[in-house]
Amino acid sequence: MKSLSSIMTVVLVLVMLVGLSAAGFAQEVELEFFQNKREAVETFDKLIEKFEEENPNIDIEQNHVPEAETVLKSRLAKNNIPDIMGLGGNFTYGQIADAGILKNFDQASYLSNTQTAYQEMLQDLHEGSTNYGVPYTANANTVLYNKDKFEELGLDIPQTWDEFIETAETIQENDGTPFYLTFKDAWTIMVPWNFLAANLHGENFIEERTENETTFKSRYEEVSEKLYKLLDYGQDDVFGFGYDQGNQAFANGESFMYIQGVWAINPILESNPDLNLGAFAMPVVNDAEENMLVSGVDTVLTMNKNTDHPEAAEKFIQFLLEEENAQFYIDEQMTFSAVENVFQEDPTVVDLKTYFESGKIAPFPDHYYPSGMQVPNLIQGFLHEGDVEEFLNTLDSEWNKVQSR
Amino acid sequence: MKKTSSIFYWMTIPAFILFFVFHTLPALQGIFYSFTDYIGFGDYGFVGFRNFINLLNDGRAFDAYIFTFKFAIVSTIIVNILSLLIALGLNAKIKFKDTFRAIYFVPYMLSILVVGYIFNHIFTFIVPEIGRNLGIDILSKNILGNMDLAWVGVVILAVWNSSGFNTLLYLSGLQTVPDELYEVAKIDGAGKWDQFKHITFPLIAPFFTINIVISMRGFLMVFDHIMALTQGGPGRATESITLLIYNGGFMGGEFAYQTANAVVFLIVVLSISLFQIKVLQKREVDY
């Protein structure tokens, strides 16, 4: 018996050794995929699962944290850069691109399968015209509206600013609340602000402001006045409620309209799946043909140029950009695709499709304001005090101050 | 000369190394970065005192200092009055003393962020409901959305949260006062107020000093409370220095500039604490 047990031991040890070396030979590549969208975690998990099935020796670890941009910046400070990243196409992305740590995608074949409008939006965020990322999805600012309530009063989608205000007044006359405003959360003010600014601040505002050839004071008066006007049509205590409460209230039918991005559609439908809602672009000017939809890069895919496994990382980015997978992503996330020939067909956002087809799309103006200015809080302060002139002066002086640092 | 046992070095040196590596070194690094134009990553160059000069002309930083001091002074006063009263009550011979103590200490153990969200709910829904029922106009709206009142909401959360800890310190102070002194005072015919004024308060003066210094320092650093309640809003009405440093430094890409701000703030907090200790210790007595 004794000899048997010792043989068993030897066999066991041998089996373990062989097992270990086999695992070593398979050489599993581990990659970190850092992305900033909480609501997209599950969708990405599904895509990663599919990818890992096709590529059994690549292991993608998705990493999502709250306040992802801040976390990423502090990780960059420690030179601890994720292999693959999915980021918002905003000022922060531009800063990271300028820091020279992202791969140059100019020669990548898959880049040409994405819409050039979005590539250009990304290029404008940093210096030079190199592509440091591939646009993946696009989002849009909208006015969400309750279709059933609109029908009750026989209202149509307003096409001009005057009609927009008229609609709001008709709703008020019928004892309804036109908008549920969530201005306790300063960032939610940026949704109507971006519509107004993109349509009204004129050509090349950001470039000219940077060169000190123009000022907020000379270009933003109408923007501020129209934004201030919206306060007349909000619910009671517009500064008392935030984004979550706004989604809840609109889902419960407390207001006719709700000015938010398409990203709010899923949370709203989650709290009330029966809500019959639609989306239209906020009409800002009185010539309906001129009106533009504000749309920006929701997710830009990029990678660390010094990653240990560049081929594997690139493979994953290419996989996400395949038409089938891009379609899967936008269907789940109710966003729009930056990949050519992939369209969002959901009936909720069907009224926005014409803007995409005709290319009447403007980038988010606030993505080009230096984030050190904290424009949302400045606007929130202005809406409390209501002094347009003082507000515009503050915007100009804050811009100058931040630029001079 | 008697040789000192090496065991004492073993007790102090490891802690010193840890403290130096994880505390002193980063602080020195911060001071170093405050003289650069570093944005948190990538390359940087030296800019001399430019960050500090810009700071002097920064109205936003000035407003943040005003708010921080207003908040810290008001909260310190309220917390200390409240916790001294609670401590006096708990030190008396009352029933359920230990239960009360535990209950008062619970808020201090809870995470401010979690409690902050509960208070957010209270200020958003419950207080306005009460305000409407009582017909008080100013309470019928969310006070956190009111530029003039939002800071009161932050003070309420801060006081509720930290009173338990200060109560505990005062309690331990009260237990150092010998009972004989009160008996003697009673024989001399001193009333309750005279006893407090001439015996209790002077004898717990060291605890008063430490309580004032600790709470003032803590409230000057206020961050979580604001993060959970207002994020600095409405406008910039509740932006504290720490919040400004965080917002500007990490979110706004002004790492070096806000590090300079942090260096200035460090000096300010340090001087205030030293000043307080100096002034308050003068009036401590020893019977």
Question: Could you write a compact summary of the structure shown?
Answer:
Chain A is 46% helix and 13% strand.
Can you put this structure into words, describing what you see?
The complex is a heterodimer of chains A (405) and B (287). With 405 residues, chain A is α/β, with parallel strands linked by helices. Chain A is 46% helix and 13% strand. Chain A folds into 2 domains: 28-139 and 296-356, D-Maltodextrin-Binding Protein, domain 2 (3-Layer(aba) Sandwich), CATH 3.40.190; 141-294 and 363-404, Periplasmic binding protein-like II (D-Maltodextrin-Binding Protein, domain 2), CATH 3.40.190. Chain A has helices at 2-26, 41-54, 68-77, 91-98, 116-123, 147-152, 161-173, 190-200, 205-210, 216-219, 221-230, 243-251, 265-271, 310-321, 323-333, 353-358, 375-385, 388-404; strands at 29-35, 58-63, 84-87, 134-146, 257-261, 277-280, 293-303, 336-337, 361-362. In chain A, strands 1, 2, 3, 4, 5, 6, 7, 8 and 9 form a 9-stranded mixed beta sheet that branches. In chain A, helix 8 (190-200) runs antiparallel to helix 11, helix 12 (243-251) packs across helix 13 (265-271) and helix 17 runs antiparallel to helix 18. Chain A starts with a helix and ends with a helix. Residues 20-25 of chain A have low confidence and may be disordered. Chain B is mostly helical and 287 residues long. Chain B has a single domain (48-282), classed as Orthogonal Bundle (MetI-like fold). Chains A and B meet through helix 3, helix 4, helix 17 and helix 18 of A and helix 11 of B. Chain A: Residues 1-26 form the signal peptide. Chain A: Pfam families: SBP_bac_1 (PF01547). Chain A: Keywords: Cell membrane, Lipoprotein, Membrane, Palmitate, Signal. Chain A: InterPro entries: Bact_solute-bd_prot1 (IPR050490), SBP (IPR006059). Chain A: It comes from Halanaerobium saccharolyticum.
